[in-house]
Amino acid sequence: MNTPDFVADTGIIRHRHTLADGRDLIYFDDPQTTLPPERAADLRELDPRPATARMRQDPLTGEWVSIAAARQNRVFLPPAHLDPLAPSTPGNPSEVPSNYDVAVFENKSPSFGPLLTDADAPAGLDDLNTIGLNRIRTSVGRCEVVCFSPENEGSFASLSVVRARTVIEAWAERTHALSQLPGVEQVFPFENRGEAIGVTLHHPHGQIYSYPYVTPRTQRVIASLDQYGPNLFADILASEQAGGRVILTGEHWTAFVPFAARWPIEVHMLPHRHVPDFAATSLAERDELAVLYRRLLRGIDALYDTPTPYIAAWHQAPVSVRRDEIRLMLQVTSPRRAADKLKFLAGSEAAMGAWIGDVTPEQAADNIRRAVERSAVADAAGEQAGPAASVPTISTTLEGQTRE
């Protein structure tokens, strides 16, 4: 993998542990955390981990579908006192044995992994890209859960700026580590938020999927690069910065509603320089992102009187191909088209992939900009935590810390 060395924030301390069934657990402590360095061992008696899922190829599209039947038994919207992502208590022996700031652990019911090699098939993209009938491969890879907070409810937007920065550090380090694993071709951090999206836990958290292939969406991007040229992402950013759909901009990042937005709420964010993934970002870029990304999500929540369901997807370049051309990109999408209405994918979108927009991107950008401004005013007035979120032009200052 051709990447620069990962630069870690040494102010965010890591503690590595192993859960009772052998899964990895990593605690990421906020700078100046109040938590002690000692962490409890996982004393649960757990069943063996499920067998790695198998994936089947659709010969019409070449896409691989992981059949992960063990996920049918995962926890579904438990009460707060049985939250599996809360710190463990005698009455709730959870997935995280100790109190924490941010915790990352291997998913108990993964869609990919824990195996990292398929003993029955040749390795590599050439095999996976071949089209045939009744093709089956092992769903090698890894799936991790990222707990943003020990609180039972919330989202990335409800975090402090310091905690948001710790989560971003976890994304960067895990992207670096997962990209080194054999069999992993693409790493994808994301957050699903809201029951309308299909979340099964209210606890503020996200996930990181490590795929054994380059995902279909990224393959479409590669096809566009083949036609347009290697400057596609740089030209998109320049075009959007010169247009009227920018939501927020800073020294290192710009967020905007894209020219051909599919969803009623859709915001993309790009770094100003070319970086293929979180692992390649600088400390200053992560510092600014903690402020800017949090402010964006708080604004999206301020669109209506109730929190907005969304998928926040961090698209990263594949591990081994086109890293000099594919840029790290956030895509936040929500089906919410009004306070009490959702956009459902019906025949044209779901069956044919032919999208019809309900709101013009220009109107959506204006709505989101005004919501971000309302949220910033509320922050400045002390109605919401995090005074840094009200700064109109984001600098590289993070609550008193400045990156050189």
Automatic annotation (TrEMBL):
The keyword Nucleotidyltransferase is assigned to this record: yes
Residue ranges, compositional bias (Polar residues): 392-404
PROSITE patterns (UniProt xref): GAL_P_UDP_TRANSF_I (PS00117)
Region annotation Disordered: where it falls in the sequence: 378-404
Domain Galactose-1-phosphate uridyl transferase N-terminal intervals: 83-214
Reaction equation(s) it catalyzes: alpha-D-galactose 1-phosphate + UDP-alpha-D-glucose = alpha-D-glucose 1-phosphate + UDP-alpha-D-galactose
EC category: transferase
Pfam families hit by this protein: GalP_UDP_tr_C (PF02744), GalP_UDP_transf (PF01087)
Cofactor(s) demanded: Zn(2+)
Biased composition (Low complexity): 378-389
BP GO terms, sorted: galactose catabolic process via UDP-galactose, Leloir pathway
PANTHER family recorded: GALACTOSE-1-PHOSPHATE URIDYLYLTRANSFERASE (PTHR11943)
Family: Belongs to the galactose-1-phosphate uridylyltransferase type 1 family.
NCBIfam families reported for this sequence: galT_1
Protein name per its UniProtKB record: Galactose-1-phosphate uridylyltransferase
Organism: Cryobacterium cheniae
Lineage: Bacteria, Bacillati, Actinomycetota, Actinomycetes, Micrococcales
